[in-house]
Amino acid sequence: MNKSVIKRKLFAKKAADYSYTILFFISFAFFTFFVIRPNILTILSLQEESGALKILDAGYENVIMKIITIQTFLQDNGQDLFLLDDALPTLPKINKLVVDTQFSASKSGMELATMSINKVDLRDTEKKLVRKKIVITMNGSSDFLQSREFITQIMNDRRLKMIQQISFDQDDKKGTTSGSLKLQLEVEGYYL
């Protein structure tokens, strides 16, 4: 082919339409790949970060609401917080526990024969928020109503306690069914 034929075919109306279309697609691909694609990726990453921030914001809002609830509780019940220390003291306070038990026994009319306390480590200085216990074993005698009153007194005391074991036996020395009962009681007192 000679040059004139090639020139004529290149500058023909049909060839010019294709060259315009090809140039349009090349420029469109360039803009799509180098201009539009980075913008779309930026928009998608910003939307993902926005979703993560909304979740984080909801978490912070929950924590703030809990803090406000606790603060409101402390403001409303601040004058009664000493009761918590009475119920679960940070030290064993064995003497207070024994005195309260003896007071409950005398108030209810029960005669305590023996009272023993399990081993308690008074040198324990670790500040763990773990409930520790003191076990008191008591033997005494009284009638049924006095025993019931004694147990009620023990449980109504401010110190947190649980009765772990209780047994009633009939006192053989009295002889009547309405006579006195022998009571054996194991009580756990707690401290931090």
> Using DSSP, what is the number of strands?
4
Count of DSSP H/I helices: 5
| CATH topology-level name of the largest domain | Alpha-Beta Plaits
Shape: rod-shaped
Distance between the termini: 104 Å
In N-to-C order, the SSE pattern is HHHHEEHEE
Helix-and-strand structural type: alpha+beta
Portion of residues in beta strands equals 15-25%
CATH superfamily of the largest domain: Ribosomal protein S6/Translation elongation factor EF1B
CATH class of the largest domain: Alpha Beta
- Main sheet attributes: strand count, strand direction, barrel closure: 4 strands, antiparallel
CATH architecture of the largest domain: 2-Layer Sandwich
Number of domains: 2
Radius of gyration: 43 Å
Mean pLDDT, rounded to whole units? 80
Describe this structure in words.
This protein has two domains: 3-75; 86-191, Alpha-Beta Plaits. Strands 1-2-4-3 form a four-stranded antiparallel beta sheet. It is built from five helices and four strands; from the N terminus they run H-H-H-H-E-E-H-E-E. The model has no long low-confidence stretch (mean pLDDT 80). The chain is rod-shaped. It has helices at residues 3-10, 13-77, 82-87, 94-108, 144-156, and strands spanning 111-117, 132-142, 161-170, 181-191. Helix 4 packs antiparallel against helix 5. Helix content is 56%, strand content 20%. It is an alpha+beta fold and 192 residues long.
Summarize the structure.
Helix content is 56%, strand content 20%.
